[in-house]
Amino acid sequence: MPIIGIMCNPALTERHWIEMSEISGFNLTPNAGTTLSKIIDLNLEQLLPQFEVISIGATKEEQLRRSLEKMQEDWKTIELCTSPYKDTKINILSGLDSIQALLDEHFIRTISIRGSAFVKPIESEVKEWFDKINRMNMTLEEWARVQMRWLYLMPIFSSKDIVDQMPEEGSLFNEINLIINGLLSMISSHPLAITCVGQEGVLESLIKCTKMAEFINLGVNKYLEKKRLFFPRFFFLSNNEMLEVLSETRDPKRVQPHLKKCFEGISKLEFNDNLDILKFLSSEGEEIALSHYISTVEARGSVEKWLFQLEKQMIISLRNLIENAYNEYPTIERTTWVQKWPSQCVVCVSQMFWTAEVHEIFIAQKLGQMRNYHNFLNKQLNDIVNLVRSKANKQRRTTLSTLITLDVHCRDVVDDLANNNVRHDMDFKWLSQLRYYWDADVLARITNATINYAYEYLGNKPRLVITPLTERCYRTLISAYHLHLYGAPEGPAGTGKTETTKDLARALAFKCVVFNCSESLNYLAMRKFFKGLASCGAWVCFEEFNRIDIKVLSVVAQQILGIVQAVRTNVETFFFEGTELKLNPRCYVCITMNPGYAGRFDLPDNLKVLFRTVAMMVPDYAMIGEISLYSYGFVNAKELSIKIVTTYKLCSEQLSLQPHYDYGMRAIKAVLIAVGNLKMKYPENNDSELLLKSILEVNLPKFLDKDVPLFNGIISDLFPDVKLPNTYHENLISTAKIVCEKMNLQPIDTFMEKLVQTYEMMVVRHGFMLVGNSFGGKTSLLHLLAETLNLQNKLDQGEEKVEYETINPKALTINQLYGYFNDVLHEWSNGVVANKFRKYSMSETSDRKWLIFDGPIDAVWVENLNSVLDDNKKLCLSSGEVIDMPNNISMIFEVMDLTQASPATVSRCGMIYLDPIDLGWRPLIESWIKTCPEFWSLNQNGIDIMCLFDWITPPCLCFVRLSCVQLTNAGEINMVLNVLNILEMQLKSSHTDNPGFNEHFTNYLQGSFVYASIWGFGGTLDSNSRSAFDRYFKELWKGDIPGLEPPEALSSLDITIPYDGMLYDYIYSCTSRGFWKNLSEVVKNNKIEEISIIEQTLVHTMDTARYMHLVDMFISHRKPLLLFGPSGTGKSFYIKNYMMN
């Protein structure tokens, strides 16, 4: 036998026979006459061990040869393919994943062949194959890299204007284009991968492309840097945004959508026929004529040149307007004057005259004059309030409201000076105020610091109510600015840190860029920010600064220190990280921090010393409420504001503590916005009625059922005689009922109430959350509201259409959500949220746009939306891009709870609580009956279905809730849905090929309902609870439980249920008249099939019969199914077994 094994080995070749012949001393090479008996006669037993070594070697060599041939054979059929890229017509190499996987596998296999001791005979072939496969691997990697760079550069160089400005890079890109297109056409003519990718010259040309692409990238960055240094505001734009702006060299009008990113207050420009700029307009519609027109033609296509001119002209024009308004103020009535000039001029000039008039009183030193001036200011204020109450347009109303806010502050300051008998202009009570002076220029002073007004046009925006906290923050920030330090307001969410900083910048007319920091922010993005800051003299406010990674913060400290030192030494230019910048010493950095929240770092010491901190704690809510209500035209503002504050105080003391309840500044602001809107809409209505309506509108939606009576008690105590008319939103409700019919939803009262609350919340807050367990109707509510508004738009009821996009935030990584820097290509890749938000932001239609996040909220992903959800309304990406949020966009969240959300997020959003118990299970059945086969719901059949559910469901749910242990709980409505699904599947299964279906339908319905109830209500119970539930159900069905007898309207119960064993052991068979089939019979009839792998053997038991029947039913009807339980109970096995067999 050993001789046969060794000598008859088919792998032996001539070389092996020669080796064996040399060992034996005579020729062993077989020929036509060689037989086994002849070889045995040669007596080679002693040499067999040596021959065996040769024979084994021959076998191994043959295996290696075959493996090599198999790999070569595989590649004879593999072809490359191309497909269009995204929505373009450009073809690119695609489907590389499977090819790359095979290539990796073959690469490893070839390496192991090369390392084998038996490779010698085929060494040259293996080396040649290894070189080829290695080349293919390198080529594919290089191709993927070049292709990504090519796609990134294509939109840049498809603009002729940019190619004209970068001719060298343009010609290099054309060369890359030729190479890539040549390679793609080679694929279309010879798609075989081994000939395309393994070919000599392909890798070399791709490496050449990579080098050219790197050179082009460098050129593009240098080009952008040059433009940024000329017009520093470009530093606040991302590369892609800049390229979009710079590519519009022929038509300056097309730059308009990007204007707001460079100039906060300017949204449009007015051109004449020669394309000269005559005016600029704010987003509110305020027009400012330029002192001197700007010729865009003279800029010869250089966008940055005419933008630079626009910046200069904006400052000159605003200064001239303020000077003219200042000169005219004493000559005409104040009420006429305020309606004649732009908002910014009105506010600035009236503040200057107030300062001058107080100084005159100090100089005159007459007794009682300060009190007289206080009375004069009161009269002046009442005149403006009367103007607001008259029919003013929205823009004029905003100006007047802003003026009232500041006039009230001026009046209160004068009252304080009079009460404290202040007689001198060097008294701290006067010095600590922000005062404006005209000295051939506007100067602002606070304590001993003087700041030149910056004349940045900021549009017609409201100003903050000035409280003692605001004043303290102003003093700290300005003192720090005066000492060339920076400011750091810190404190809990909703105390006005960012808004106060922005308001101070607005008071001094500085451009203020707000940026929401995140963990993914790197020092390169910060470097770009600081370059812009230092060269254009803007203010920047970094929100949530302590969310930046500690490693990055240390570098940031050095960057800020560089700017501080340059400002202190008063230089004109300085080097910042290798770039020479022109310094504008007006620049200022503010950082805001929420201490002690999740994901926050402590600032390093070298950073702390550069910032003056100011603690922002609870602001004076009553004062803010009073002055805001006053500015909306409410006469008894003081009394009403006390009611708002008292409401929230009592709510926080008496109602339950829930993660989604918030009674802070943002909640009060929401009420103030709502009441302002109502005042504009219904100016004749009672003020208390409007305030009550607003408080209910903002707060009632978020309360749990148990808190609503307590809240109503608080409200009835504070507004005892106020009754609300039910005339609001009649159109919305009547239209919603029509849409409900179309969408097969049930317009029950609680659902309609939530619909109205959601609509009201959408009007008041641009970010809101629908909170509650599943089956509360969150998604249906939003879809219903969207369709209702669309129908109202169609019927011309004054509503806009709705577009919406739903995102599951937990199905994506944070990089996929917001975008990230690709380290290989050194470029930014956009995320899903960024793309959608940008698309909605750039859209020019007035339709409402909703971005819906349907999934759990946690601090990791949602904190990046903080600046979107607060008053900044800007999405800040780590690339440095800041996307503005227009008023027609809403950010909507559908969540189960807010246990993982920080107070910063909760306070920023409106809340609507939807409880599944309010909706109940009945609407589910009513909607289902309308969609099921017609015969099922006809006459008595439909009555039977409703009666069965009405009779069986409440006691079963109650028994499961009180007497059973559920291993998982998806809610009571989910149980009813399970019953419904199993009932539907049972009846549908029995309907096929069953001529007696209609005749025996009542029996089938009752039997199927029993089976559905056992698994629907009792499928999630543990084994002890199952037997208890089984006993209870049998008693219920027999009618043995007092008060729970079958309803009279129900057809007689013709089916009997089996009492032998548990109902879990049976299935109901809908054949002939219908009968119960014991699963033990199914187990007996099933034989164990012979399978070579023991793990795949199915041993039939009662459990396998139960679960396989359910798995089969759910899968064949395409219904979702979840098998749960401890490991080793066969969950995966059932599914695998079903799929395999």
CATH class of the largest domain: Alpha Beta
Largest β-sheet summary: 5 strands, parallel
Strand content: 5-15%
Query: What is the count of structural domains?
Result: 7
Secondary-structure blueprint of this entry?
Layout lengths: L1 H6 L6 H11 L11 H6 L6 H27 L6 E4 L6 E4 L1 H19 L8 H35 L2 H6 L1 H23 L3 H5 L4 H29 L8 H8 L12 H4 L5 E4 L4 E6 L5 E9 L7 H26 L5 H4 L5 H22 L4 H21 L4 H26 L8 H4 L3 E4 L3 E5 L2 E4 L15 H15 L3 E5 L6 H11 L4 E5 L6 H14 L2 E5 L6 H19 L4 E4 L2 E4 L5 E4 L13 H4 L2 E5 L5 H11 L5 H18 L10 H17 L5 H13 L8 H11 L11 H14 L5 H16 L2 E5 L6 H17 L7 E6 L6 H5 E4 L4 E4 L1 H11 L5 E7 L4 H4 L3 H4 L4 E3 L5 E3 L4 E7 L7 H6 L1 E4 L2 H4 L2 H10 L2 H4 L1 H25 L8 H20 L9 H18 L4 H16 L27 E4 L5 E4 H7 L16 H15 L14 H10 L1
Parallel strand pairs: 9-15, 10-11, 11-14, 16-23, 16-24, 17-20, 20-23
Antiparallel strand pairs: 1-2, 3-4, 4-5, 6-7, 7-8, 12-13, 18-19, 21-22, 25-26
Main location: cytoplasm
Organism: Schizaphis graminum
Family: Belongs to the dynein heavy chain family.
